[in-house]
Each structure stands twice: as C-alpha cells, then as structure tokens.
Design brief:
The protein is mainly beta. It is about 0% helix and about 55% strand. Strands 2, 4, 5, 6, 9, 10 and 11 form a 7-stranded mixed sheet that branches. A hairpin with a 7-residue loop joins strand 9 (about 90-100) and strand 10.
Length: about 120
C-alpha cells in the first residue's frame, strides 16, 4: 500500500520560510517523479514543483527563485524549501508521485496547510 505523508506546514509571516517534507512508502521511490501541488481556496490545484530521480526539475513561474525541491532517495523523502513566502502562497500543499515516463500523478498525500500572514 502506497502512502505519502506530508509534514512541515504551518503559519508564517510574509518573508519567512518553511520546509515541507513528504515521506513515501510502499513504492520504489527512485522510479517515481515526485511533485508538490497546492490548492488555495476557490482555486484549482496547481503543480508547484517536481523532481525526478535523474534530476529533472520543474518549477511554476510563481515560485521560481523562492522554492527549492529536493529528494533523498535513501530516505524515500522529498522536500520543498519555501523562502520569501508571500500571502498568495497560502494553500494546502500536497505531495504526489507519478511513475517515471507517466503522464498522471497516481498517488497523493493528505495535504498540509501553509498559511502566510501579511
């Protein structure tokens, strides 16, 4: 049974930082592209960042130069370091996994709330 468990969300002031973690189990971690999505109230879920085992990385324009995705294949964990946070970054952040070469994220975590106060 595949499980993705996020942690690290919380309340932070604008300009602050948070690091999210997602621990994966039940899958061969290195075979999966790991992504972070977010969904703000009233908005669609959007892909924030993703990273393959081979190092290919994607960032949404809105978070480039502020967020950094990394992964530790030995620990089956993916991280999202978020710096210079803005109120518009407030959302529920989800960890997701898709098989390398696949088009759809198949597995999802339960989400962690990030709230940035102005």
């Amino acid at each position: 049974q595949v499980q993705l468990v996020e942690s690290g969300g919380g309340l932070v002031e604008a300009g602050g930082s948070l690091r999210l973690s997602c621990a994966a189990s039940g899958l061969t971690f290195s075979n999966y592209v790991m992504g972070w999505y977010r969904q703000a109230p009233g908005k669609e879920r959007e892909l924030v960042a993703s990273k393959s085992s081979g190092g290919s990385t994607y960032y949404a324009d809105s978070v480039k130069d502020r967020f950094t995705i990394s992964r530790d294949n030995a620990k089956n964990t993916v991280y999202l370091q978020m710096n210079s946070l803005k109120p518009e970054d407030t959302a529920v952040y989800y960890c997701a996994a898709k098989l390398r070469g696949g088009s759809t994220y198949r597995y999802w975590g339960q989400g962690t709330q990030v709230t940035v106060s102005s």
